[in-house]
Amino acid sequence: MIIQSKNFNIKHIADSGQCFRMNQMNQDTYNLVAFGKYIELTQQGPDTIEITCSEEDYETIWKEYFDLSYQYDTIVTSLINGEDIFLREAAAYGSGLRILKQDLFEILISFIISQRKNIPAIKSCIEQLSKKYGDKINHNNQTFYTFPTPERLSNAKQSELREIGLGYRDVYILKTSQAVANGDIDLLKLKSCSNEEAMNQLKNLPGVGIKVANCVALYGLHQIDAFPIDVWIARILNDIYNNQFELEQYNGYAGIVQQYMFYYIRNKK
Fold first, then answer.
1. Is the dihedral of CA 267, 98, 138, 170 positive or negative?
2. H runs (alpha helix) in 104-194
3. Cα 233 to Cα 261: distance, rounded to the nearest angstrom
4. pLDDT tens per residue across span 118-176
5. Nearest C-alpha neighbor of 195 from the set 215, 173, 172
């Protein structure tokens, strides 16, 4: 299926640190496993993307997943034309980034895993976790795996999780999966909560601090005012803004600004 959309760059999204299951196949094509589906995406031009899915799946899954109803080009243009030199450069460099609307449980577990790990190590752990506890998807004589359900992961053995290379995070993943599976927290209900209420509930889960909770809020709940601060963003706030970044001037889309900051500082030559 061919779609036309401004400000949609597959490579920039894949390398933006918000999704760990989008992998490059060749120069312009990436594959992705999400919501129990396998797709391939090809950048055919600046505003043209091919997605290997049915029209029904596009309308019910991928249009929402890639946030294609939101006008990112308006925000990018305002940043490029703004007075902040760093954000002008970041928006121009990362043009095409979008905030994905990902599965809440997958995002929660993925960012618990992400603590003190680099992106290749995070991706490796998630793939191994999916291979061991997810379901198979067969495509063109290749096998891919869905992300595990809370119920499946809640019954994992801690020793098995440790073998995957999760380290101290194994107990957090096991206990958080059990909390979700047992109904101690209802992730879907968080979608109707305020950011403050959602953050408070998330931080009650094992292994979830303010940074992980903000990532879940931004990439799962799509609360685009959430502003996760990791080592890269902390470096920007300190080195570029002397810890005086005026976040309130970006009310309503601070998380999008954060994503452009992160991508630029991490990927620029």
1. positive
2. 104-113, 119-133, 150-154, 158-163, 169-181
3. 7
4. 999 999 999 999 999 999 999 999 999 999 999 999 999 999 999 998 999 999 999 99
5. 215
Q: Which residues pair with 48 in a beta bridge?
A: 4, 45
Q: How far apart are alpha carbons 35 and 32 in whole angstroms? A: 10
Under 8 Å between Cβ of 150 and 181: yes
- Nearest alpha-carbon partner for 157 in 134, 137, 132: 132
Can you tell me which residue has the tokens 């889309």? 253
For residue 211, indicate whether it is catalytic. yes
Residue 110 sits at φ, ψ, to 5 deg, of -60, -40
The DSSP code for 148 is P
Instruction: Report the residue count for the chain.
Output: 269
Cα–Cα distance measured from residue 31 to residue 42, given in angstroms and rounded to the nearest whole number: 9
Q: Do 217 and 199 touch, CB atoms closer than 8 A?
A: yes
| Set 123, 131, 211, 268: catalytic member | 211
* Domains contained in the chain, CATH given: 2-93 (3.30.310.260), 104-219 (1.10.340.30)
The set of residues, in sequence order, having a beta carbon less than 8 Å from that of 167 and lying 6+ positions away, is: none
Structure-token pair, residue 90: 């970041």
Which amino acid, 127?
A: E
Distance CA 211, CA 14 (A): 20
- Read off the pLDDT of residues 195-241 as tens digits, 9 standing for 90 and up: 999 999 999 999 999 999 999 999 999 999 999 999 999 999 999 99
Per DSSP, helices labelled H in 134-253 are: 150-154, 158-163, 169-181, 195-202, 210-219, 231-239
Distance CA 149, CA 36 (A): 10
Q: Name the 3-class secondary structure at 47.
A: coil
